[in-house]
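Fresh eyes needed here. Kindly weigh in on this sequence plus structure tokens:
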Amino acid sequence: MKKIGKEVLFLPASKDNPRNGEGTFARLLDGSIIAAYTHYYGDDWQDHATARICAVYSYDEGESWSEPTVLLEKDPNSQNIMSPSLIRLANGELGMIYLRKEVMPDKGITCMPIFVSSSNEGKTWSDPVFCQIPEGYYCVINDGVTVLQSGRILVPAAYYGLRHDAFHTCTLDLDPARGGVIYIAYSDDNGKTWDFLTDPMYSPYNDDVGLAEPGIYEYENGKLWMYCRTAYGNQYQSFSEDNGINWSTPAPNFFFTSPDSPMRVKRVGERTLAVFNPCGYNCINPNTDKWGRPMRTPLLLAVSDDDGHSFDTTDKTPAHGAMKNFVKNNLYYIEDDLNDTYCYPAIIDTNDGFLISYYHSNGTPICINSMKIVKVRYDEL
């Protein structure tokens, strides 16, 4: 397996900027590319620390980038805003979904998906709209919102209960901790109004792990593929053939072995790309430190030539007068240094290849640390 891609941007964490990452891309109408990401400022890198959404811009297909600027500042009542997904709406405007955390009077934290839109390519944004999910703690992964061919927006979210007690000061009598339960919000009017698409989707196991950080990929024939982060050793998947109303029972995808880490799947030109961590630890060993190495390392790219239906191709070719099976190598290293960890990828195409952004541990034991963008040329595949 060969390593491909070149670094085009690295945004390291620093004393007053302890975390950069969870990126997302969009192509702007002037041809430039925007890369938005969560920018933590202050003295803490934890999920519930102070953060806003910043952006950098490229005017040469990702070869060089501007200095960071603030794309959207958090409101005074929120703890942070984070995990953006940029999307192009059916009406041509730029949309963005992000997570907003608020510390409630009882000291518990809610985390809610929010939608905003822009008619001037991100210079200003509309008033925020809640994606009509009952109040609670939800996770919507960066770059994980899908706009279907019909124009419908799908926002898959993993629900973890009414509040998160990150500071151990919550006075509410909360429900027992539960694993991720999948809810899908949708909008058919460019984000003005939202509703549930289907009933909640549960893990097939009765545990406190559940299904996490879901993404949805739409095949060219309209069938939907949902994939979820789990701690079960694989990405788990489910399919819908009726525009997301009904889904198959979640089951493991045995090609995408995975630690407790998210995957991203996007169509780029005639190919479908999946960026993920292979399973780097014994997921059924209770003594395994899930946050230790080599959990989210290395970082791999899988390439599909058939719209994401398969990512490995078994061919038969003559070998010394006989038929011999072999597996076509559609896997590549994006990162192969096992001393660092990498996660939360985002993908966009360029005129000569594609860009991938992701968290890079940058020599620290914290995998959600700095943001790196690499560019891969099509001729490298």
Residues 286-294, 316-327 have pLDDT under 50 and may be disordered.
